């Protein structure tokens, strides 16, 4: 194989994997795709974290806030939630937490 043949093969492989000259490489295409995906899902992650919600619950004096999941914390901290609804949510979370420490596990965690 001569030097020119090897250059031709390398050029064909380069065009196959990276496109023609002047075209963007696959790496930059992948980065652009990742950026589009990140922009699309960014609103879902712009909410407060569970840790921030736990700190708010602690400041409001809500008991057993550490065993609440994020969804329950959001409901408990919502200003439209009544005291009875808060108590029901917390009671359900406590029952779910306690069932994890015994032989008789709760299969239905509706609070």
Key features of this structure:
single chain; mainly alpha; 2 domains; 5 helices; 0% strand; elongated
Task: Please characterize this protein's 3D structure.
By secondary structure, this protein is mostly helical. The protein folds into 2 domains: 3-45, no CATH class; 50-99, no CATH class. It contains 5 helices and no strands. Helix 3 packs across helix 4. The protein is elongated and about 85 Å long. It starts with a helix and ends in a 12-residue tail after the last helix. The model has no long low-confidence stretch (mean pLDDT 78).
Largest sheet: none
Number of E strands: 0
Shape: elongated
SSE string:
HHHHH
Provide a quick synopsis of the model:
The chain contains 5 helices and no strands. It is elongated, with a radius of gyration of 28 Å.
Chain-wise SSE layout:
Blueprint: H1 3-18, H2 26-45, H3 50-60, H4 70-77, H5 83-99
Helix pairs in contact: 3-4
